[in-house]
Structures are given as C-alpha cells and as structure tokens.
Amino acid sequence: MKKILSIITILMFSFVLSVNAQMTAPSDPGGGPGVDDDPIGGGAPIGGGSLILLGMAAVYGGKKIYDFRKNMEDLED
After folding, report:
1. If 0-12 CB within 10 Å is exposed, 13-18 middle and 19+ buried, where does residue 25 land?
2. Per the structure, how many domains does the chain have?
3. Which pLDDT does position 40 carry in this prediction?
4. CB–CB of 51/15 below 8 Å?
C-alpha cells in the first residue's frame, strides 16, 4: 500500500511541475485588429482543473486496481 501511495504522490508532483514549466505567449502591445474582442470564455485558463481531474482519475484507477488485486489474492487462498 505504501508503494502505491508513493507512486501516486510522485505522479501528482510531476504533473504540477510540468504545468508550472509551461511558458505563456507574449502579449501584443500594438493596436491591431481584434484588440478589444474578448475570446469566448473570457480567456480563463483550464490547466488547473484538468490537472485536478487527471489526478483524481489516477487515484480512482489505482484504488480499483488495488482492490482487484486484493480480491484475486483472497480468491487464490
């Protein structure tokens, strides 16, 4: 169980570090066409939410695998 938790913890930290390493595009200082147009959604970032969703899916999948293996060992005994 400790091995599974340590693997999950390492994966979570690697996802967080990879998101922080991404660079944003430079802003346009000029007054070109479409300057006052806001994108659909207001330009809200979705990176944090998708990271949480992936992390929770990994934890859920890990728990399902752990339970499956535990049940298989009980059936063999």
Report:
1. exposed
2. 1
3. 63
4. yes
Which DSSP symbol is given to 27? P
Radius of gyration in angstroms for the set of CA atoms belonging to the chain, rounded to a whole number: 21
| DSSP, residue by residue, 33-67 | TTTTPPPTTTT---HHHHHHHHHHHHHHHHHHHHH
Within-domain flag for 27: no
* In-domain check, residue 42: no
Q: Give, for all 77 residues of the chain, the pLDDT tens digit.
A: 788 888 888 887 777 666 555 556 666 555 555 555 666 666 666 667 788 888 899 999 999 999 999 998 888 76
Rounded Cα distance, 70 and 63, in Å:
10
Quick one: how far is CA 54 from the chain centroid?
A: 4
